């Protein structure tokens, strides 16, 4: 027969291991969530930089040839825009 002291030690070790596992899992999950959040922030920053570059290129190309591509603009001329597209496609 196993003495009650041995059973107490066994269950104490078991519960200590379970408690350690829970604490360790929480710390790993917290680190993973932080890393995932930082990655998402970095990705959004990269998208913003790319969008700014694309907008800047679009503005520079619109200034260079004098063609207004915004149909809401009163200076918009469809014939000039079509001519520009034909020239670019060749």
UniProtKB/TrEMBL annotation:
InterPro entries documented for this protein: ATP_synth_F0_esu_mt
Localization, UniProt: Mitochondrion inner membrane
GO biological process: proton motive force-driven ATP synthesis
Keywords from the UniProt entry: ATP synthesis, CF(0), Hydrogen ion transport, Ion transport, Membrane, Mitochondrion, Mitochondrion inner membrane, Transport
GO cellular component, one term: mitochondrial inner membrane
Key word Transferase present: no
Main location: mitochondrion
Domain of life assignment: Eukaryota
Molecular function GO labels: proton transmembrane transporter activity
Family stated for the protein in its record: Belongs to the ATPase e subunit family.
Subunit structure of this chain's protein: F-type ATPases have 2 components, CF(1) - the catalytic core - and CF(0) - the membrane proton channel. CF(1) and CF(0) have multiple subunits.
Function: Subunit e, of the mitochondrial membrane ATP synthase complex (F(1)F(0) ATP synthase or Complex V) that produces ATP from ADP in the presence of a proton gradient across the membrane which is generated by electron transport complexes of the respiratory chain. ATP synthase complex consist of a soluble F(1) head domain - the catalytic core - and a membrane F(1) domain - the membrane proton channel. These two domains are linked by a central stalk rotating inside the F(1) region and a stationary peripheral stalk.
Stated name of the protein: ATP synthase F(0) complex subunit e, mitochondrial
Organism per entry: Pisolithus microcarpus 441
Lineage per the UniProt record: Eukaryota, Fungi, Dikarya, Basidiomycota, Agaricomycotina
